[in-house]
């Protein structure tokens, strides 16, 4: 589903020089598998997610996402790429001036789905996260765990083959984190490739999923598979 081949990213530093955020990272994330991505602050986790979403471009190396070679698509190809990717953020990034329904519908409205199809899909996504009865509420009325589940419903509403999560349990206690992990595992079970960037070592310890570790931009460990994946 995602393939990285010797990917490096060097950010230019104003005034000269550069910061190597990723160095020669190669990996393969197959469909239907949940993978943790960990490493200290500054190790390159966000950079890796940004490259997969084409928010940043690699300095060298190749990335293929669901058959799309990212070095061969220009900015015109970004909407096509983004439709393949559901993104879950730590702070949910929900709009508090709209209903739960409208928040989840947003990616479908942007993608131009017909209204009847939007209703069907939004309700299917809310049902999946167990919050169908909250569709008319404003997200501000929901608990932190419920808000995170709304963020997940929004990320999967167009059924992307790939789900990326950046510290999705960062603000949640262990019980709520477990609920969120259950949801991610459900998506992996139906074939979605799930990548969870996290500092939360207790979360990683509790689940026997594949683990990628970054240190100073290098992939230093890959629990569960060969580090070079390809
Ligand atoms: P993580 O998400 O693991 O904390 P990042 O990918 O955010 O790591 O950062 C990796 C390294 O790249 C860090 O040293 C960071 O300071 C640097 N970095 C990230 N973004 C930029 C940028 N836009 N310009 C310059 N340096 C950056
Ligand atoms: P359709 O709209 O094509 O009839 P459904 O809404 O009945 O499909 O969904 C079929 C199943 O596909 C769902 O129950 C769900 O578990 C699964 N599924 C496959 N890929 C995804 C994804 N990326 N996100 C969420 N569900 C998915």
From TrEMBL:
Function: Part of the ABC transporter FtsEX involved in cellular division. Important for assembly or stability of the septal ring.
Compartment annotation: Cell inner membrane; Cell membrane
Protein name: Cell division ATP-binding protein FtsE
Annotated Gene Ontology cellular component terms: plasma membrane
InterPro entries the record matches: AAA+_ATPase, ABC_transporter-like_ATP-bd, ABC_transporter-like_CS, ABC_transpr_LolD-like, Cell_div_FtsE, P-loop_NTPase
GO BP annotation list: cell division
Organism the protein comes from: Isoalcanivorax pacificus W11-5
Keywords: ATP-binding, Cell cycle, Cell division, Cell membrane, Membrane, Nucleotide-binding
PROSITE patterns: ABC_TRANSPORTER_1, ABC_TRANSPORTER_2
Record domain ABC transporter: where: 2-230
């Amino acid at each position: 589903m995602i393939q990285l081949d010797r990917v490096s990213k060097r950010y230019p530093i104003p005034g000269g020089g550069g910061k190597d955020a990723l160095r020669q990272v190669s990996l393969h994330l197959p469909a239907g598998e949940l993978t943790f991505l960990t490493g200290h602050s500054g190790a390159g986790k966000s950079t890796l997610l940004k490259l997969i979403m084409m928010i940043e471009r690699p300095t060298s190396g190749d990335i293929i996402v669901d058959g799309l070679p990212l070095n061969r698509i220009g900015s015109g190809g970004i909407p096509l790429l983004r439709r393949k990717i559901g993104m879950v953020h730590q702070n949910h990034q929900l709009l508090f001036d709209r209903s739960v329904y409208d928040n989840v519908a947003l990616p479908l409205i942007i993608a131009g789905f017909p209204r009847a199809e939007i209703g069907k899909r939004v309700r299917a996504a809310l049902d999946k996260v167990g919050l169908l009865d909250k569709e008319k509420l404003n997200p501000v009325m929901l608990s932190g765990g419920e808000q995170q589940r709304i963020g997940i419903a929004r990320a999967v509403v167009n059924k992307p083959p790939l789900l990326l999560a950046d510290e999705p349990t960062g603000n949640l206690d262990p019980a709520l984190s477990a609920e969120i992990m259950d949801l991610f595992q459900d998506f992996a079970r139906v074939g979605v490739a799930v990548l969870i960037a996290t500092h939360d070592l207790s979360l990683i310890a509790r689940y026997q999923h594949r683990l990628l570790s970054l240190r100073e931009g290098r992939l230093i460990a890959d629990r569960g598979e060969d580090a070079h994946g390809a």
